[in-house]
Design goal:
It is built from seven helices and six strands, in the order αβαβαβαβαββαα. By secondary structure, it is α/β, with parallel strands linked by helices.
């Protein structure tokens, strides 16, 4: 997703700062830009960054395979599109094919069960990726450190009980249960005293 381009603009600025020739293209995709009245594209034009953007108004599962076919490689990929597990897994699958050795893949919305499962899958099954700690709890960063040399039968279970309970707890916090209301009243009465 692209939304209003905040993440994309930050990524672009960081890339331009660290790339001496300033010949850097950021590929962004979002089939829902029309719902944002193309706010991201407008904002890129306002800051004169539109020449550094390659915008695809399409789902990632259509764009990413065409990038693989074109044999392009990338040093940074943000996965923050569809949040169903299969959407994220497909995005990671193609991102891995597009990532050059040493590239970073950043996952957003780690509180979501689907993202937590993808993280668990990568940690359990992809020894060609190194998990890098970041200070923000809603992000998870991996670096590709080697080629994928897994045997064609390779698979390790990746179900994560921790992420299951964390997700349930967050959903409960966002919900409207009687127990939650009672606990909040109790907290309020204690803090007033």
């Amino acid at each position: 997703g692209l939304g209003y381009e905040k993440s994309a603009l930050y990524i672009l600025c960081a890339a331009l700062k660290n790339n001496e020739d300033n010949n850097y293209k950021l590929i962004v995709m979002d089939p829902f830009q029309s719902k944002y009245e193309y706010g991201a594209i407008t904002n890129f034009k306002k800051v004169k960054a539109d020449q550094s953007i390659e915008f695809q108004e399409e789902y990632s599962h259509f764009v990413l395979p065409t990038l693989v076919k074109s044999e392009r490689k990338f040093d940074f990929i943000l996965i923050d599109g569809g949040h169903k597990y299969d959407d994220q897994f497909v995005d990671f699958y193609y991102s891995d094919l597009l990532a050059e050795n040493g590239a970073y893949i950043l996952l957003h919305d780690t509180w979501m069960r689907s993202t937590a499962l993808l993280i668990s899958y990568i940690k359990s099954n992809r020894k060609d990726y190194k998990h890098i700690h970041v200070p923000l709890r809603n992000l998870c960063l991996f670096q590709k450190i080697a080629p994928d040399n897994r045997d064609w039968l390779h698979f390790k279970e990746f179900y994560s009980l921790n992420s299951f309970f964390r997700y349930r707890f967050i959903m409960w916090l966002n919900g409207d249960s009687k127990l939650k209301k009672l606990l909040l009243k109790l907290k309020d009465s204690i803090t007033r005293k």
